[in-house]
Amino acid sequence: MKEDNEERIFKEVPNGKVGWKSPSNIALVKYWGKKPGQVPANASLSFTLRESVTETTIEFEPASGEGFKLEFFLDGMKNEKFADKTVKYFESISNSFPFIKQLDFKIRSKNSFPHSAGIASSASGMSALALCLCEIERKYFDEFSSDEKFFKRASYFARLGSGSACRSVYGGFVSWGEIEGVRNTSNMFGNKINKNIDSVFDTFQDSILIVDAGEKEVSSSLGHSLMNSNPYSLGRLKQAGENMIKLMEVIKTGDLGGFVKIVESEALSLHAMMMTSNPYFLLMKPNTISIIEKVREYRGETGIQACFTLDAGPNVHLIYPDENKKEVRDFIGSELLKLTVNETVIHDEVGQGPERIAY
Ligand code: ADP
Fold first, then answer.
1. Is the CB of 163 under 6 A from ligand 1?
2. Nearest-atom index, ligand 1, CA of 118
3. Residue 217: helix, strand or coil by DSSP?
């Protein structure tokens, strides 16, 4: 990304506040495996959610000492772990945002869903932070920057915080990673798919069935790194590339049967990669498998094209067309809720992307 850093240092250091609400996303073609510099080993595609969001505000004032200080409040409580991670993130990108070192920060954030549980709070959390930093930059150094440039830059820096966060900067369906023969695709930032989407996908539903809200057993970074020695990784990369092309075609034509096949196979491939890594991880719980079986049975009996997908954890995303909402919600209530913890389901759907909440 082109830099023009010299101008991005405050002559007079201000007090101020910015804030963004940013959503999580659910990947349909999974990102699993990466190269140095947060470059994905394969292209991925997700849709952005509406209800599963992080709201983050950053208050800033002139730094009291050398370098910056940062306090992080999660749900109103000081959180040292999140503070440490955010300090590392800010340090890692401070060459691109040199004004960071001139400020002290108070960050307040809340997630509308359990974090570190495989529902991609890293995507909503890191994209919210990246949007806030880009907002400080736009407010003081680049007031007339276009929205297009702003979101591209936010996506670039969200990616450096957490790969899949780069897709959360846009609403609707978003790809990340170079796809041969498809223009505007890049390993550096997400690409909103504006054209060639059948209208059935504009309102797609995602009911997230919480089988286990506890923290994940395996961090995403360890999971990605295990792909380097996984004996099946080359086959997986080939499959992901083919699935990207197939999925783009399916979302263009609205072929729901084709959609279900690709999406479920992607979820199981992701878990297969974890099961065949050394050390291996079994992230599904017995109830994850029971839900998968029930979803398959339900589809067979009713013909309703509802399918499951999973992130790197035990919770199940049940995704389905809006026109089947009533029947599928009844099915969730009668068959699936009892397989979740404390009958927990988050009913979500395709969302429009981040919103500014403070300026
Ligand atoms: P998840 O499945 O929720 O993404 P990860 O373990 O991959 O689980 O990511 C969780 C990490 O994401 C947290 O440790 C934290 O660093 C980051 N994160 C989550 N929520 C926020 C937030 N609101 N603000 C900043 N970072 C966040």
1. no
2. 2
3. coil
pLDDT in tens, the chain (359 residues): 545 556 789 999 999 999 999 999 999 999 999 999 999 999 999 999 999 999 999 999 999 999 999 999 999 999 999 999 999 999 999 999 999 999 999 999 999 998 887 789 999 999 999 999 999 999 999 887 899 999 999 999 999 999 999 999 999 999 999 998 888 899 999 999 999 999 999 999 999 999 998 888 888 889 999 999 999 999 999 999 999 999 999 999 999 999 999 999 999 999 999 999 999 999 999 999 999 999 999 999 999 999 999 999 999 999 999 999 999 999 999 999 999 999 999 999 999 999 999 99
Indicate whether 233 belongs to any domain.
Answer: yes
Number of domains in the chain: 2
Which residue has its alpha carbon closest to ligand 1 atom 2?
118
Q: Considering the entire predicted model, what is its pTM?
A: 0.96
In this structure, the answer to whether residues 171 and 226 fall within a common structural domain is no
> Does residue 224 line the site of ligand 1, with CB under 6 A?
no
Domain that holds residue 106: 5-195
Pocket residue to mutate for ligand 1, from 122, 310, 357, most atoms within 8 A of Cβ: 122
CA separation, residue 45 to residues 112, 132, 190 (Å): 23, 24, 9
CATH of the domain at 283: 3.30.70.890
Handedness of CA 184, 189, 194, 195 (dihedral sign): positive
Nearest-atom number in ligand 1 for the CA of 120 is: 4
- 185 and 221 belong to one structural domain: no
C-alpha span between 54 and 8 (Å, rounded): 27
> Quick one: angle between helices 233-253 and 256-275, nearest 10?
160
Q: Nearest Cα to 134, choosing from 166, 173, 163? A: 166
- 355: in domain: no
